[in-house]
Design a protein that fits this description.
- This is ZFY21 protein.
- This protein is α+β, with helices and mostly antiparallel strands.
- The chain has 2 domains: about 5-110, Zinc/RING finger domain, C3HC4 (zinc finger) (Herpes Virus-1); about 115-165 and about 175-229, Zinc finger FYVE domain-containing protein 21, C-terminal (PH-domain like, Roll).
- The chain is about 20% helix and about 30% strand.
- It has 2 helices and 13 strands, in the order ββββββαβββββββα.
- The strands form 4 sheets. A 7-stranded antiparallel beta sheet has the order 10-9-8-7-13-12-11. Strands 1-2 form a two-stranded antiparallel sheet.
- Strand 12 (about 175-185) and strand 13 form a beta hairpin.
- Helix 1 (about 90-115) packs across helix 2 (about 205-229).
- The longest helix is centred in the C-terminal third of the chain and has 26 residues, at about 205-229.
- It is elongated.
- It starts with 6 loop residues before the first strand and ends with a helix.
Amino acid sequence: MSGGDAKKLVRSPSGLRMVPEHRAARSPFGLDEPPWVPDKECPRCMQCDTKFDFITRKHHCRRCGKCFCDKCCSKKVPLPRMCFVDPVRQCAECALVSQKETEFYDKQLKVLMNGATFFVTLGTSDKSELMVCRLSNNQRYLVLDGDSHYEIEIIQISTVQILTEGFTPGGGNTRAIGMILQYKVPGSEEVTQMKFTAGEDFNCNRKLSASWLAAMHKATKLLYESRDQ
């Protein structure tokens, strides 16, 4: 592990977290811990309105920071976007979201890091180059390797449009065949566009490319959510 990607174990009121030593090295998909609603501001459960007393204790959801009774905040679910080492207490609504995100971290993130092959067209050029596209291990860069080499910082990506085909009037499923990605060049306001097209040479490559694009679509949603926090 390089010095820039070094991590440290920290304890917060919500639990143990394994975080990057430098904030600039954090994953672009990460979320900050929310501030907890002060105890004095929540005399009742913010879900079922049960009044708190010596028997009914207050619990804070680690994802939203709101205050609940034990019944409404009993689930302990992994929360990798906040770098928690162990599953943490969450309200029912947040637990459902976190459970869906766990699939991204367990499966789709690995697909992005393993990479897939695409024909890549830069800007308005009419020439494309066969390149292997993958997410870097620290999740901060989209790395493209062919005769040329590009490293696009994930936080500089402004839009991602997934290209599909296969829709039929009968409601048939569409298939991802490529994407158009726009990103800002660091140090300027210039926006560059890249078009990724799956190759049609091998059926297995098309399947791998489609899986990679589906994972990229999910990653984009998480990226936008992180920015909006």
